Amino acid sequence: QQQVKQSPQSLIVQKGGISIINCAYENTAFDYFPWYQQFPGKGPALLIAIRPDVSEKKEGRFTISFNKSAKQFSLHIMDSQPGDSATYFCAADDQTGANNLFFGTGTRLTVIP
Amino acid sequence: DTAVSQTPKYLVTQMGNDKSIKCEQNLGHDTMYWYKQDSKKFLKIMFSYNNKELIINETVPNRFSPKSPDKAHLNLHINSLELGDSAVYFCASSQGITTYGYTFGSGTRLTVV
After folding, report:
1. Which of B25, B32, B44 lies closest to B89 in space, CA to CA?
2. What was the pLDDT predicted at B55?
3. Among A93, B28, B68, B75, which is least packed by CB within 10 angstroms?
């Protein structure tokens, strides 16, 4: 069973545009929501993360929006650049000590010049 | 210095063979993981070790056996390799019973022919 649902599967955006990737979850025990960025041939790398006590977190061009009541969170990439082309994964954890991040299925982002 | 290093980066082998993948982290973390990423990029946890003790063992064939000689190393041994084992295997580490600061290696692409 997929604990975290992610959409879209792939996304093509023009340079300078806004990329938006959405995730949804059911387990209300989740309290940590990171996003990972993966370039071809590399491992996923932590991009930005949020806890449910805030509704938004911004780091540079990357923003997480979090809607606790809807159990949804999204990644916004402002002024998207070709160098942002990668696969993005949302994830969630319940911090129960099992040390298990539940990953979404990934979104392949392509930013065209 | 690479934080989480895996060897080999590529592994091509015949069905029925036994192979090992090694992982080492120099971050001082005490928890290490193995993830499998299939051809659709889906990331699924296989094993988790905390201070050399197994804490997560997902539904993985018993042909896969992790071994942690110390908390900086987590190796994955696979017996009787099958075509379906072809995937990218990622090692990761984190500190304590938390997934904050999860750090992935760059992966080992296993191809079984």
Report:
1. B44
2. 77
3. B28
Question: Which amino acid, one-letter code, is at A20?
Answer: I
Q: Which two tokens stand for residue A66?
A: 């979090």
- Measured in angstroms, the CA of A96 and the nearest CA of chain B are apart by 8
CB contact under 8 A, A100 and B105: no
User: In angstroms, what CA-CA distances link B64 with A57, A113, B19, B36, B110?
Assistant: 39, 44, 10, 12, 13
Residue A61: which residues within 8 A CB-CB, separation 6 or more?
A: A77, A78, A79, A80
Task: Answer whether A101 sits within 8 Å of B45, measured CB to CB.
Answer: yes
- Residue B53 DSSP SS3: strand
Closest chain A C-alpha to B16 CA, distance in angstroms: 26
Answer whether residue B1 shows pLDDT above 80.
Answer: no
